[in-house]
Design goal:
Blueprint: E1 5-14, E2 17-23, E3 26-27, E4 32-36, H1 43-50, E5 58-63, E6 66-67, H2 68-71, E7 79-82, H3 94-105, H4 112-119, H5 135-147, E8 153-157, H6 165-180, E9 185-190, H7 193-199, E10 202-207, E11 210-216, H8 217-222, E12 226-232, H9 235-245, E13 251-255, E14 258-261, H10 268-277, E15 282-289, H11 292-300
Parallel strand pairs: 4-9, 4-10, 7-8, 8-9
Antiparallel strand pairs: 1-2, 1-3, 1-5, 5-6, 10-11, 12-14, 12-15, 13-14
Helix pairs in contact: 5-6
Length: 308
């Protein structure tokens, strides 16, 4: 398979510190690839190497099947980026900012500015200056700047940073539309895992510069743990009772009133009746599947702390 982005044993070392440690990424065409990691995990350094803003110590980068060293800089006409904060002019309107972008990129404005502003929901901003935009509007204009030359690939570094829930939802809906309706491939880095779980088709998890996992999100979710939480009067007493009646029970007390059972429970109604019949007070019982955030935390728990 030819990937839109592929890296082979990509490595970046600053002095004695290894920021990115031999990672091999595979971003499929038409996907939304969530590149996940804590702050300082190596996400931005990796993205900078993809855009040749930082030279790798070792390894290779392929964009659209071409080795970056051979296709640079012409290949960047097929890519739109936001790395850290969008660089836009504070005292100019959205339209004037995009006009300048088109000029320095050598792109003819044949109506594309208006189309792009409509795509990101900023067509009615008129002469309002960028400095007077809300944070969500600023992020959407940053995405517009990345889109105005109609790239095939978007690389977005933490595009929802600092946004409120409403702003995050707007960006999520926009990115889904760009992928599903316009056929864009999107690489988005983030440390907000709950948001990425609602957005991405594929996941890569980086920690301390190492790629710990990479797969379709649906494939990862098939392996997520399922557990049953009980809210009871005395969690330790219930745990002791169940250990006598369920072979090889795996459970842990979350709080004095909450017990989590990691063993598979086939029938929660029967479990509830069994506890009530033995005079235990059960206030709540439900089965939950592990979230992406819980999977991530479990994955990195044995890998040590953060790397700056």
């Amino acid at each position: 398979m030819q990937y839109v982005i592929e890296t082979k044993k990509l490595r970046k070392q600053f002095g004695m510190s290894i920021a990115v440690d031999d990672i091999s990424l595979h971003v499929e065409q038409g996907s939304i690839y969530g590149f996940l990691g804590e702050n300082g995990a190596g996400k931005t350094t990796t993205i900078r190497m993809l855009m040749r803003l930082v030279e790798p110590t070792n390894g290779e980068v392929f964009l659209f099947g071409e080795r970056l060293e051979k296709s640079y800089p012409s290949i960047f006409s097929k890519i739109g980026t936001i790395i850290e904060t969008p660089g836009l002019y504070e005292n100019l309107s959205a339209r004037d900012n995009l006009r300048i972008c088109c000029t320095y990129m050598g792109v003819k404005d044949d109506g594309r500015i208006e189309r792009t502003l409509t795509t990101v929901g900023l067509e009615h901003t008129g002469k309002k200056k960028f400095k007077d935009f809300s944070l969500g509007m600023k992020q959407r204009l940053g995405i517009a700047r990345a889109l105005v030359h109609d790239p095939e690939l978007l690389i977005l570094d933490e595009p929802t940073n600092g946004l409120d829930p409403s702003g995050i939802k707007e960006i999520r809906q926009l990115l889904k539309k760009l992928c599903e309706e316009d056929g864009k491939t999107i690489l988005i880095s983030s440390h907000i895992l709950s948001e990425i779980q609602q957005l991405a088709t594929h996941i890569g998890i980086i920690h301390n510069g190492k790629l710990l996992a990479e797969d379709r999100l649906s494939q990862l979710e098939e392996g997520f743990e399922q557990y049953t939480d009980l809210k009871v009067e005395d969690a330790k007493a219930v745990q002791a009772f169940l250990q006598e009646h369920i072979k090889q029970l795996q459970s842990n007390v979350i709080s004095p009133q909450q017990l989590r059972i990691h063993s598979q429970i086939e029938n929660t109604a029967a479990l509830n009746k069994q506890l009530i019949d033995h005079q235990f007070s059960v206030y709540e019982i439900h089965t939950t599947k592990q979230t992406l955030e819980e999977y991530f935390l479990a994955l990195i728990s044995g890998e040590g702390g953060r790397r700056d």
